[in-house]
Automatic annotation (TrEMBL), chain A:
InterPro entries: Glutathione-S-Trfase_C-like, Glutathione-S-Trfase_C_sf, Glutathione_S-Trfase, Glutathione_S-Trfase_N, GST_C, GST_Phi_C, Thioredoxin-like_sf. GO terms for biological process: glutathione metabolic process; response to toxic substance. This is glutathione transferase. Belongs to the GST superfamily. Phi family. The lineage of its organism: Eukaryota, Viridiplantae, Streptophyta, Embryophyta, Tracheophyta. It comes from Protea cynaroides. Keywords: Transferase. Residues 134-261 form the GST C-terminal domain. Its EC number is 2.5.1.18. One of its GO terms (molecular function) is glutathione binding. Residues 43-124 form the GST N-terminal domain. GO terms for cellular component: cytoplasm. It comes from the Eukaryota.
TrEMBL record, chain B:
Gene3D superfamilies: 1.20.1050.10, Glutaredoxin. It is an enzyme of class 2 (transferase). It holds the Pfam family GST_C. It comes from the Eukaryota. Belongs to the GST superfamily. Phi family. InterPro entries: Glutathione-S-Trfase_C-like, Glutathione-S-Trfase_C_sf, Glutathione_S-Trfase, Glutathione_S-Trfase_N, GST_C, GST_Phi_C, Thioredoxin-like_sf. One of its GO terms (cellular component) is cytoplasm. Residues 96-218 form the GST C-terminal domain. GO terms for biological process: glutathione metabolic process; response to toxic substance. This is glutathione transferase. Its EC number is 2.5.1.18. GO terms for molecular function: glutathione binding; glutathione transferase activity.
């Protein structure tokens, strides 16, 4: 550095010149230290959960579709980690998943996928139809997101719980709950069959977050004695084949498949 | 259902006393959007008529018609109008991505954790007696226990934050209004709210809004 520039100059001028020269000298270093707006900021994302969990899988599917890197932090459910004070501080409802993005902590898988789809709208699949500025398409996605949340999942979960999870807790599956659940669920699927006979995907002729949200629970259904509820409905079946064969979906399915011993 | 002659306003199809319709109506009032209610008789099962099922295949209210555009699911309707009219009326979605994330988190909490037990309580304690259906005491007891646990979490949250998503009223708070109104006024469970200081203060605040007072008069 030419220190003679500093002699006799105004203090403000001196400081300006000093920092200008400093920035030139260190510019390659500074460039490397500057955060890459997509890569480094997404490296700060932490997702607390496990790939086998349906709700964690929902979020992972979104990250795979949008090429978002997250650090998956496993939570030991068997040891009750999700009910410990340190986890309850993140999600007072004591369930996975939880997303940490810098100072922001978010729970509820559907809120997390909505947040990620908005924050990273410019990359990967446009799951909420935000790039085209078509509010009506966005609203159709919103409608079928709510249908999954309020009609499909409440109908399917009691059946899956009784069949897959009750035995693990030493309980005998409640056949009445399963039978009543199947009646209700079939009515919902009939609406889906009708919808998907008019439209390739739920919200329109484009894959969206609404389709994605169905992946993990429907995968369990396909592994249950009631897979024919899907396969017997030609349009629902075609839709399932289509959405489950996507590379991102295949990755999720792999994560939800126990390793063979 | 009679066709309305006024095509300029949003038609909200469903009776004004229906909880999910009230969600939408409160939102439209907050957003200063003109609407017209097209009442249908859900006690007579008009929502299961073929005509209605063409609009809403699940046979529940409300549905909106906005010109030739149809939308259902009350939370989807609220999100649509909050976004469409984001520059008028109350901002119900949050301004930054982070605020929007928190609004979604608490709106999902309402939909996934609060709604199921409170719906069961209202169904069994308010609607079943009126319709001559039996009241399942086991469901009532379990639902009340579940709702209490959720309200404990709300109490903790609202001790740190004026509203659920932060220091601003949002869709997350609004979504709680209709069913909680029935809880407090019609099934003798006001204590669930009143026994929790911060939940109680929050409830008084959100029910004092002009939009909610207007909805109750419709």
């Amino acid at each position: 550095m030419n220190l003679t520039l500093f002699k006799g100059g105004e203090p403000l001028v001196k400081r300006t010149i000093f920092f200008f020269l400093l920035s030139i000298c260190f510019s390659p270093v500074i460039y490397k230290l500057l955060p890459d707006p997509i890569h480094t900021s997404s490296m700060a994302l932490k997702l607390y959960g496990i790939p086998m969990s349906t709700c964690t899988a929902r979020v992972l599917a979104c990250t795979y579709e949008k090429n978002i890197e997250v650090q998956l932090v496993p939570v030991t459910l068997a040891a009750g980690e999700h009910k410990q004070p340190s986890f309850l501080a993140k999600n007072p409802f004591g369930v996975i998943p939880v997303l940490e993005d810098g100072d922001l902590t978010l729970f509820e898988s559907r809120a997390i996928t909505a947040y990620l789809s908005k924050k990273y709208k410019e990359q990967g699949e446009d799951l909420l139809r935000l790039k085209g500025g078509n509010l009506k398409e966005e609203a159709m996605v919103g409608l079928w997101l709510e249908v999954e949340s309020q009609q499909y999942s409440p109908a399917i979960t009691p059946i899956l719980y009784e069949h897959f999870f009750a035995p693990r807790r030493g309980k005998i599956p409640n056949q009445k709950v399963i039978e009543d659940g199947l009646v209700k669920f079939e009515k919902v699927l009939d609406v889906y069959e009708s919808r998907l006979s008019q439209s390739k995907y739920l919200a329109g002729d484009f894959y969206s977050l609404a389709d994605l949200h169905h992946l993990s629970f429907t995968l369990y259904l396909m592994r249950s004695p009631w897979a024919s509820l899907i396969s017997s409905r030609p349009h629902v079946n075609a839709w399932w084949e289509c959405i489950s064969s996507r590379p991102a979906s295949q990755k999720v399915i792999q994560g939800m498949t126990p390793a063979e011993k | 259902m009679e066709a309305s002659k006024n095509t300029m306003v949003v038609k909200v199809i469903g009776p004004p006393y229906a909880s999910c319709s009230r969600r939408v109506l409160a939102c439209l009032i907050e957003k200063e959007v003109e609407f017209e209610i097209i009442p249908i008789d859900i006690l007579k099962g008009e929502q299961k008529s073929p005509e209605f099922l063409k609009l809403q295949p699940f046979g529940v209210v409300p549905v909106i018609q906005d010109g030739d555009y149809t939308l259902y699911e009350s939370r989807a309707i609220m999100r649509y109008y909050s976004e469409k009219y984001k520059s008028q009326g109350t901002d119900l979605l949050g301004k930054t991505l982070e605020e929007k994330g928190l609004v979604e988190q608490w709106l999902e909490t309402e939909g996934q954790n609060y709604h199921p037990p409170i719906y069961n309580l209202i169904l069994h304690l308010l609607f079943h007696p009126k319709l001559g259906f039996p009241v399942d005491d086991k469901i009532v007891k379990e639902s009340e226990e579940k709702l209490e646990k959720v309200l404990d979490i709300y109490e903790e949250r609202l001790s740190k934050s004026k509203y659920l998503a932060g220091e601003f009223f949002s869709l997350a708070d609004l979504s709680h209004l209709p069913f909680t109104h029935y809880l407090v006024h019609d099934i003798g469970r006001a204590y669930l709210i009143r026994n929790r200081k911060h939940v109680s203060a929050w409830w008084d605040d959100i029910t004092s809004r002009e939009s909610w007072k207007k909805v109750l008069q419709l």
